[in-house]
Design a protein that fits this description.
The structure holds 2 protein chains of 2 kinds.
Chain A (H helix, E strand, L loop, with lengths): L1 H13 L10 H6 L4 H24 L9 H23 L1 H7 L10 H11 L4 H31 L1 E2 L2 E2 L14 H17 L29 H28 L4 H14 L1
Antiparallel strand pairs in A: 1-2
Chain B lengths: L1 H13 L10 H6 L4 H30 L8 H23 L1 H7 L2 H4 L4 H12 L4 H31 L9 H16 L6
Classes of the chains: A mainly alpha, B mainly alpha.
């Protein structure tokens, strides 16, 4: 059971798909014109993610390794079709506002990413919780972005007027450019607070340093984790080097420099 | 004829696929580091999207509609696109090796580009006929190519600039994309 709660925490905070892994950018930017749209999109994606994780995890020993990608895509596409029909039948207004983005959940890299990185290697129960955690993390960040855009762009929250009538809404925030600006500000805040993210910090310039070559189109989530370990190693190496340099520079005064150099050496 | 040209211009510029419909953001941010790679990605997308929208339109109108399996379109389209990309790769490798070399690694990446599936689904949603679907695919992918090449040009300049530390990495990219989106809003008066 402990493992399950750990998966929830991991999805919601530690590896939040939108804010930390920067996955699934298309729906994040496109449907967050209001908080309710963000919530709807997030929950639809969560449903697909949980069901596909369950299915893929259950079938992980049957699917041959060579055809796993096409198999995963077909499984995901089936669940997306189910969700699409359910939304069309029971929530027609949500279907109108999300439109084409519901079938496009198929190509959302969070889903294939989790299938490849987690569900295809782990038992059913943790995989379900991984899906719930990741899905809720996605839902929370989408709702948050939607809420910010709705408040600034229309003065409302979940459709209810919250800012005074005298407030002149910045309608650009509910239009296309606003999506980019809000996400830019959120990632800038994340950089400022030095919270973990796939893109913050000083990434090494050469593309070959990163496991995915800095190519997001190819990314299936797992590579982000690899990148992080590579970056951490690099940082440790740099720190060790610095400590070495300090130690050699301060050879004249060994009693001052020694403890620091030792600390740096221990870390690496 | 006039409607076709209007459709081409409106999909390429007015309703730009990246900057106003948010399809294909991942390659737009990921593969736009250098102009050369951006041109490669852009031309590969033009090729695949045009062919994919033609094939998807044929399959939908002549197989799915007569058999009343329209609700299967998402599954069928994604399978068709994946197979098509593989097929295009093999054909190019065999018959036009120079083009294959030029497109290189970008071809397989296109399967995960949501603008391919997006265009196929939009064609169905707007009930375009075969010719309109092809034009829509061509226009959309030209729009993608224009925006990714522009973005890569701007990024090459940004590299040289002194950016505040917090904005380094993706924030400055997103702000650039936002400003480009505002600029593309100006095309709205075109039609």
């Amino acid at each position: 059971m402990n493992k399950c709660t750990e998966r929830l925490y991991n999805g919601l905070v530690k590896e939040n798909p939108t804010l930390v892994l920067m996955l699934g950018m298309c729906p994040t930017l496109a449907v967050t014109t209001s908080a309710i749209n963000g919530l709807g999109m997030g929950l639809s994606t969560t449903a697909v993610l949980v069901m596909s994780n369950l299915m893929i995890s259950a079938l992980r020993k049957i699917i041959p390794d060579k055809v796993r990608m096409p198999a995963f895509i077909v499984i995901v596409a089936s669940f997306v079709t189910i969700v699409e029909l359910l939304v069309k039948g029971f929530l027609p207004s949500l279907n109108d506002s999300l439109g084409i983005y519901i079938p496009l959940i198929v190509v959302n890299c969070i889903i294939l990413g989790r299938a490849e990185a987690y569900a295809s290697k782990n038992p059913v129960l943790p995989s379900i919780f991984d899906g719930i955690g990741m899905g809720l993390g996605f839902t929370c960040s989408l709702t948050m972005i939607g809420l910010i855009r709705e408040i600034i762009g229309a003065g409302t929250a979940f459709g209810a007027q919250i800012l005074p009538d005298g407030y002149e809404p910045f309608s650009i925030f509910v239009m296309a450019p606003g999506a980019f600006f809000v996400l830019a500000i959120l990632t800038a805040i994340q950089n400022k607070l030095k919270l973990k993210s796939a893109t913050n910090g000083d990434a090494p310039k050469g593309a070959e340093v990163l496991a995915c070559g800095g190519n997001c189109a190819e990314c299936v989530g797992e590579t982000c984790a690899k990148n992080r370990t590579i970056l951490e190693q690099k940082r440790d190496e740099a720190e060790a080097k610095k400590a070495d340099a300090k130690a050699s520079a301060a050879k004249a005064f060994p009693e001052n420099a020694d403890p620091k150099a030792k600390e740096g050496g221990d870390k690496s | 004829m006039k409607e076709m040209i209007l459709l081409l211009v409106s999909t390429a510029l007015v309703n730009n696929v990246v900057l106003s419909q948010f399809l294909g953001i991942c390659p737009f941010l990921g593969v736009s580091k250098k102009t050369k790679t951006a041109v490669g990605m852009g031309s590969a997308v033009i090729f695949v999207v045009t062919v994919a929208s033609a094939v998807a339109s044929l399959i939908y109108n002549f197989i799915l509609v007569p058999t009343e399996l329209e609700y299967m379109k998402t599954i069928v389209f994604i399978a068709v696109i994946a197979a098509l990309v593989q097929l295009v790769e093999m054909i190019l490798k065999k018959f036009i090796p120079s083009l294959y070399k030029a497109l290189g690694v970008y071809l397989p990446l296109i399967t995960t580009n949501c603008c391919v599936l997006g265009v196929a689904l939009l064609n169905v949603q707007n009930s375009y006929n075969f010719l309109e679907s092809v034009i829509n695919g061509l226009g959309t992918s030209i729009g993608f190519c224009i925006s990714i090449v522009l973005m890569s040009g701007i990024r090459e300049r940004i590299e040289e600039n002194d950016i505040p530390h917090v904005l380094k990495g993706s924030p400055i990219l997103l702000i650039t994309a936002g400003l480009m989106a505002i600029a593309f809003c100006g095309f709205a008066g075109l039609i």
